[in-house]
Amino acid sequence: MPDDRNDPLEKLAAAHRSLEENLNDIERAARGLGDPRGRAAALEGLSGVIAYFERSMIRHQEDEERSLFPRLAVLESLAPTLDRLRKEHKAHQRALDELRAAIERDGGAGAAEEVPQLVDRLRAEYQRHIACEEQEVFPAARRFLQPSAVHAITNEMETRRGRGGQGNPAKGISGRPHRPGGLRRGP
Ligand SMILES: [Fe+2]
Ligand SMILES: [Fe+2]
Q1: Helix ranges (DSSP H) in the chain
Q2: Domain assignment present for 184
Q3: How many separate domains does the chain show?
Q4: Is the separation of the CB atoms in 68 and 12 below 8 Å?
Q5: Domain range for residue 52?
Q6: CATH number at residue 145
Q7: How far is the CA of 38 from the centre of ligand 1 (A)?
Q8: What are the tens digits of pLDDT across the range 61-114?
Q9: CB atoms within 10 A of CB 136
């Protein structure tokens, strides 16, 4: 890794920190659901935070599933782990769908209790998932990937964010162009 600033594995790890902060934002936004007078505003804020989290999560999963994992496919010992991580990505999406449904189901009245529980569950699933990637997958990638592959991953991640013509050009690999509701979003 000749240049840490362009190291895609560092960028992926930074995205993990961002996603963790997004979960904290969701939890904070959900606290407002307990106050009937502030519920409408809390619901709007929460929907925005969840939508942001989902966009970030999907793009991060694409970075891993389309750019990183395929380049590690020849490492047979890692194959079961990568399979499991892909399945967990789908589970995270389902958990997020459940979270959104809980908010929409009753206009937020029951969500004040349900959302924190769902966020806790998602956070626990994420912690295990992220620990595996950072302790097992990324170190293997550092040992195995040639500089040309690292460079290609960086380019693909940039392209995914519009630097090559798709998405939002203002947004870098772990960049965050907008902060609905004034909530913190991380790096
Ligand atoms: Fe992942
Ligand atoms: Fe990840």
Answers
A1: 8-31, 39-62, 79-105, 111-132, 138-144, 147-160
A2: no
A3: 1
A4: yes
A5: 4-163
A6: 1.20.120.520
A7: 35
A8: 999 999 999 999 999 999 999 999 999 999 999 999 998 888 888 666 777 788
A9: 14
